[in-house]
Amino acid sequence: MTSAHAPPPPKQLGRFEVGAKIGGGGMATIYLGRRTRGNGTEQVVALKVIRDELANDPQFAAMFVDEAKILARLKHPNVIRTLEYGITGHHRYIAMELLSGRTFADVWDLLVHRGERVPFELAAWICARVAEGLHSAHELVDAKGTPLGVIHRDVNPSNVFLTHAGEVKLIDFGLAKARMRVSRSQDGIVKGKIPYLAPEQAQGRPIDRRTDVYALGATLWEAATMKRLFKRETDVATLKAIRDAHVPDVRELVPGFPDALWAIIDKALQREADARFASADAMRAALDEFVKDFAKDAGTIKEQLAQLVSELFPGQEQKLEEWARAATSVRVPKHTMPPPAPVPIASSSLLEDVASSPDVQERPSAGTISARPAELQAMREAETGEAPATRAEAGPSAPGEEAIAARPSDAHRAKRVWLSVLVVVIVCAVIASIAASR
């Protein structure tokens, strides 16, 4: 669908007036939202709205609901905060806090371009805060106290947000795995950005919280060296590097690299999960201990991060604030607004609709890998020049992201085609028989 024919955005979602579009991806569009509180003050948020063409697709709806359910339970300063989930008309949305800053990937890219690096203690502190957020997700329980088994599955620098206030926020739980999920991956399906997959994740083996520890270790390795760890020229080569799991000793790449920090990175990036930190909290404790011993003034690390973001992107905070005010300044006349109809997540009819479908499964999205073990084997065979048994083709991806999307089931498609042909042949034969009898 071209932008010229794209439907206009909704004017009201739940309690929020909808402002300007501020982003989007393969599944949803992000808008500014605003509401006036009872005391007269205004609240500006980010509204994540499932795309219209996907709104009635039960698989995408299930993924969207799953993310909302997980985010609604997460209450941690190092995880993006969810304010409301609901349905207005046919629009499904999540209202989240509006963050001012840039991703860790943006900071990393600009520093590499300038030939500079993230200070060791700052890289460790940022990853320690991500580990805190991860641990809070891993420890989530339901109303009865039963662990939900949440795994982020997509920890990487583009999902770590650094605010102008020096805060660290883990974002995007769209690929998170949890016991409470309505949508389910087929056996052997793996998800996550390719260069940050753990070996077991890339091979389609069972994963647990230590898979996120590995991805955070890869993020820390890159932050410490200002180099890419497993990223190669092709996706196949990247997967091979992940499979080999060879992690260069940072001390051989960066003169004067602290032994204590390398020990943490090395432990997080062990090929076998049993050899890694048992939890994100254990990794957090080790990183905080390093920062306390290494930094000259560990108490000012947050201020250092705020200063770094402001220096790299001067004037951006003020521009973002001014833009947000301008983007939400035009009020929609009340008579044109549909009556607000937010649906609390605990009683969402969407949850009931999706939960009644036992066959809901996930679909791959841009920036993810989704392939069965046989397809991963085909990639490996391609490395040696052998003819693969099956093929995996690259799907569309957002700029700067990598994607491999498993081809839809050829067997099912072929079966449907042959059934259609058979029906047509039978109908034609009946018509011919009737004509001959006349």
Structure description:
It is a single chain. This protein has 438 residues and is an alpha+beta fold. Helix content is 39%, strand content 13%. The strands form 3 sheets. A 6-stranded antiparallel sheet has the order 1-2-3-4-6-5, with helices on one face. Helix 3 packs antiparallel against helix 5 (209-225) and helix 7 runs antiparallel to helix 8. The longest helix has 28 residues, at 410-437. 39% of the residues are buried. Residues 182-190 and 330-413 have low confidence and may be disordered.
Task: Quickly describe the structure.
Helices cover about 40% and strands about 15% of the residues. The strands form three sheets. Strands 1-2-3-4-6-5 form a six-stranded antiparallel beta sheet, covered by helices on one side. A three-stranded antiparallel beta sheet has the order 7-8-9. A two-stranded parallel sheet has the order 10-11.
